[in-house]
Each structure stands twice: as C-alpha cells, then as structure tokens.
C-alpha cells in the first residue's frame, strides 16, 4: 500500500486521435486514420479548450488543495494537457511508465477491423478476458498495472505523504482503482464495461486510515459548459 495524502488522475484532454477513432467506429471502418505515432498524437482544438478549463479550475483552488507533485505520461496529448492545466508547476515530472497501453499488431484497428483481420485474436481476448489478454507485440492490462505499481512505489519513496496528480490515460484511471482501492478484477472489468472516463475528467482518492477512498469518479464539473468527448482508447 502506498502512502500519499491524495492521488488524482486527469485523463488527457480530447485528442485528434479521439476524434479520428469516433469517426472510424461510427462509420463502420476497419482502420483509424491517424498519421502520427501514438505517442505524438496532439490535442484537438476542443482538447486545448478543455486544458484551459483545467487551468482555470486549478487556479481557483486554495493552496492546500493543489497537487504537490505532477507526473505526466510522455504521450503528447497527456503532456500538453498537464502543461496547459498547471503551467510552471515547481515539481512536474514526465515518466514513461504512465504511457498508454501498447496495442501492438492491433494498433489503429476498430472493433470491426479487429474482427475482420484477427478473428482468432478476438476469440483469444474473449477467452482470457481484457485484464490478462496481451495482443501480439502489445500489453495486457496486467502489464500496465505492473509499471504503474513500480511508478507509485518510486513516487512514494520520493514524495510520500504528499498530494500527487497523474496526467495520463483512460486505462490509468481504471487501473488505479485496482491498485489503490483493491477493486477485484471482475468488478474492475464490469466497471470498465459500463463506464467511460471522459477526456479531461478528474478521478481522485484520499487516504483514509490504511486505505484510499474514492472522492471523485471521472468528474467533469470543472469543465463548466464544455462537453468532453467521452471516447476511450487514445
């Protein structure tokens, strides 16, 4: 069990990849039209507006509610979100262990594309379940959980007892429930099946006794009238 006063997770603001995925899925295409490497996918104009809303939110908080440490995924969409939300933060870090899940051979495939091109992988995924299924050349959720556990351990040694904010991806928000709250795999996957983590949303936990209590579940109240694009995956 880690020792932080508070842990927050902001899913990156809307990216051009989110928009491209929504277009591909809604149009029943097999492939998502993205030219960049996954790590280089930028924010969309709406994502930049969401970043500005995050900045206004943090600027309105009293000093005691601000994060002591900010750690961002190296993916451009997450790093830019962190820079917009908390510019010039005195303890701002970038760590590759916060990167999005690597999809390997399944990268840029829609659900329809996966079923068409790799039906045997779809069957294997259904048999193993989302948590342990590892696509060819990619990562399972369990793999991502291992690197998140390593990151949290290192952060605890350097910043234990402080308020830590992570800026990363949808899978990060879901897996932190597994790591911080001890949500069992079946419950976690059911939560993932029925819940979307919106872009620029905040999920937060407070340390209570020997554990963590979920205080904010993927909230977007800080975005005001902006309508976050609730699309998973990128």
From TrEMBL:
<dbReference type="Pfam" id="PF00300">
    <property type="entry name" value="His_Phos_1"/>
</dbReference>
<dbReference type="InterPro" id="IPR005952">
    <property type="entry name" value="Phosphogly_mut1"/>
</dbReference>
<comment type="similarity">
    <text>Belongs to the phosphoglycerate mutase family. BPG-dependent PGAM subfamily.</text>
</comment>
<dbReference type="GO" id="GO:0004619">
    <property type="term" value="F:phosphoglycerate mutase activity"/>
</dbReference>
<keyword id="KW-0324">Glycolysis</keyword>
<dbReference type="InterPro" id="IPR013078">
    <property type="entry name" value="His_Pase_superF_clade-1"/>
</dbReference>
<keyword id="KW-0413">Isomerase</keyword>
<protein>
    <recommendedName>
        <fullName>phosphoglycerate mutase (2,3-diphosphoglycerate-dependent)</fullName>
        <ecNumber>5.4.2.11</ecNumber>
    </recommendedName>
</protein>
<dbReference type="GO" id="GO:0006096">
    <property type="term" value="P:glycolytic process"/>
</dbReference>
<dbReference type="InterPro" id="IPR029033">
    <property type="entry name" value="His_PPase_superfam"/>
</dbReference>
